Amino acid sequence: VALSACAKEDAAPAADAAPPAASVAETAPQVEPASIVDETTVAEAEDAVAADPSLDPCPALDSRNWAAWTAPDGAGHALTIEGEIDMPTPGYALSWREGPADRAMPPGLRVYLDAAPPADLVMQVVTPTPVTYTLKGASPVYRVIYVLCGGETIGEIADVKPKG
After folding, report:
1. What DSSP element (H or E) covers 84?
2. How many C-alpha atoms does 140 have within 13 Å on its Cβ side?
C-alpha cells in the first residue's frame, strides 16, 4: 500500500496551520549548569543529622521479648514497655523518647530508643541488655506500639491493653 499527498505549491499556508517545525536546539529551554554544593551546606546537613539521634544508625544487633501493657495511674494510665536488645559492647547509654501517636482509635504509638556508645574503650562482646520504658498519661489501650532505633523498627507490639 502506498500513500501519497497532494498540495499546491503556490498556496499560502492556512492561518490555523501549525508553524514549521523548528529544530530542537532552537526551541529547547536553556538549562543552567548544576551549581557546585559548597562545603558549608554539607556541614549544615551533617550537623542536622548529628543533632537528631533518631537518624544515627542503630547499634542494636538484635531484639526480642517485647511486651507492653497499661495500668491505671492516678487520673490516667501508665504505659510500660519491656524488651531485650543485643548491643555490640557493654556500656551503651540508652534513653527513650516518646514519638507521635496516630489518630486511629485505639491509637498506634511510636517510641524511640536512642543509644550513645561508651566513651571509654570496652571489650567487644555482644551484650544482651534489658530495656524498660514507662510513659505517664498514656491511653488505656493501643492498637500497636512501634519501638524504633536509628530510624528502623526493632520491635512491634500489637493489641496493648491493661495488664491483668
Report:
1. strand 76-87
2. 6
Total residues found in the chain within this entry: 164
d(CA 66, CA 85): 10
* Residue 45 within any structural domain of the chain: no
Write out the residue range of the structural domain in which residue 133 sits. 55-160
Q: Which residues contact 117 (CB under 8 A, 6 or more apart)?
A: 59, 89, 91, 92
Q: Would 49 be classed as within a structural domain?
A: no
Residues 6+ apart with CB under 8 A from 154: 58, 60, 63, 85, 113, 147, 148
Q: Render pLDDT for 83-127 as a digit per residue (tens, 0 to 9).
A: 999 999 999 999 999 999 999 999 999 999 999 999 999 999 999
- Whether 4 is covered by a domain: the verdict is no
Rounded to the nearest angstrom, the gap between the alpha carbon of residue 138 and the centroid of all alpha carbons in its chain is: 23
Per-residue exposure over 121-144, b if at least 16 CB sit within 10 Å of its own CB, e if not: eeeeeebebebebebeebbeebbb
Residue at 50 is within a domain: no
Between vectors from CA 73 to CA 72 and to CA 78, what angle results, nearest 5°?
80
- Split into its structural domains, the chain has a count of 1
Distance CA 133, CA 26 (A): 66
* Cell numbers found for residue 58: 542503630
